[in-house]
Amino acid sequence: MMDQRRIRIVQTIESSAQNGPVVYWMSRDQRAEDNWALYYAQQTALKQNQPLVVLFALASDFLGATLRQYGFMLRGLTETFQKLAEKNIPFYLLTGPPAKVIAGWLQTNSANTVIIDFDPLKIKTLWKKELLQKLNITCYEVDAHNIVPCWTASGKLEYAAYTIRPKIQRLLSEFLLPVPAISVQPSSDFAVQPLPPIAKLLAQLTVDTNVSEITWLKPGSSAGQKAALTFIEEKLPYYDSQSNDPTKNMQSNLSPYLHFGQISAQKIVLLIKKMQASSATESFLEELIIRRELADNFCFYQANYDKTTAFPAWAQKTLQEHLDDSRDYLYTVETLEQALTHDPLWNAAQRQMITTGKMHGYVRMYWAKKIFEWSQTPANAMTTAIYLNDKYQLDGRDPNGYAGIAWSMGGLHDRAWSERNIFGKIRYMNFNGMKRKFSIQTYMDTYPPFNQPSIF
Q1: Residue pLDDT, tens place only, 189-211
Q2: Which residues of 343-363 are buried (b: 16+ CB within 10 A; e: fewer)?
Q3: Residue 196 resides in a domain
Q4: Ramachandran category for residue 439: left, alpha or beta (phi over 0 → left; psi -120 to 50 → alpha)
Q5: Any bridge partners for residue 9, and if so which?
Q6: Got the DSSP string for 367-429?
Q7: How far apart are CA 82 and CA 63, in angstroms?
Q8: Which residues constitute the domain of residue 10?
Q9: Tell me, what CATH number does 390's domain have?
């Protein structure tokens, strides 16, 4: 059975009859299995003896996403469509402003209930508000992304991992359960129809097409599940000792799949829990559960998660005190984007992101802190980092990204450190410190200047 705490009633419309389809507006969790929102939608449809339809709204642009991210998403959705079709569940991809096209379909087809999956980003909250302003319909929101639902884990903005960890751990056993399988849906007047060709869908977008799709990582739920199993079997045992070394290739590479909801974090955790507990498994689960759900908490309860006003008070104070500190280097966005700074390690990190769509997590912290150091103000630095991150990273426009940048530049979920120039009491990272951690020359050789051959 499904824990009712995973569901929020957004809007209830009393009606004497429950005629019309039940609709799942799929957005954040783009998969046909291990999906609590889809499961709840089907159970609601079966209970009401009504058809079930899944809708997806394809916006022509989205928070700086490029051809790279749209391509990965749409190719993954193709597999989701196929798996839904096997269950006789129609999946309709609508193009246009999301709230408008979803509301139009619901009205035209006299839908009686809509289920949406939870997303803490403010643009998704705005879409939801616009939808409900356009029509009277019963609406439920289901957190299919977090293991412990965001609003259940905590009712407030958490200060750090150590404040949310015991809250999540206390509830984990209650929510860490397998998601029931989706059954074959009874036939209805809403027939399964083929998706438009991906090339046609991509041609309708107004996004930057100069950032090309990647080929080293295959999109979709099946590829994501395979990547998860490969990581668990081959890399996880060494995760605590080698994951921070970008020359060891010990990261999971699961963040793009998690970002697009092509795989379920819950399923991954259940697989890992079958293993014997170790420092390596605990280290990875800390990131997959606590840190990831802490980022959702940050974006859910802090509306200005992409602004410096989201920084904790102590960090805002120390940054204000050092606002006029002299800076040895100031770089334009164009110089940074082209990886033309004086720092060869930073340049290599930027080239990794441009080339592969995924920067190593440990280097990503250094990358963000250096943007802060080389910018006139913290606000300028945050704008630049978000722009570059969301343009090139497959997992951009994600709570983890916003929280990570705010941690790097504004002490979010961190503590005060020794005071120094520019950074004040924000945690500091430098070239020599990175040099002591791993072979930076090996890393830089892997992602050389663009006029030199790469060994990637």
Answers
A1: 999 999 999 999 999 999 999 99
A2: bbbbbbbbbbbbbbbbbbbbb
A3: no
A4: beta
A5: 140
A6: HHHHHHHTSSSHHHHHHHHHHHHHHH-TT-SSHHHHHHHHHHHH-TTS-----BTTTBTS---
A7: 28
A8: 4-145
A9: 1.10.579.10
Question: To the nearest whole number, what is the mean pLDDT of the chain?
Answer: 96
Last residue of a domain, one of 93, 121, 145: 145
Alpha-carbon span 10 to 8, nearest angstrom: 6
Which pTM was predicted? 0.96
Q: What is the pLDDT of residues 396-436, one digit of tens each?
A: 999 999 999 999 999 999 999 999 999 999 999 999 999 99
CB 21 within 8 A of CB 127: no
Cβ contact 32:83 at 8 Å: yes
Which residues are paired to 7 by β-bridges?
142
Split at pLDDT 50, 70, 90, the class of 452 is low
Domain final residue pick, 94, 116, 145: 145
pLDDT at 451: 76
Total domains, the chain: 2
Number of helices (H) and strands (E) in the chain: give both, helices first: 21, 6
Given pLDDT bands bounded at 50, 70 and 90, which one contains residue 1? confident
- Evaluate whether 290 touches 164 at the Cβ level (below 8 Å): yes
Please state the rounded mean pLDDT for residues 309-327: 98
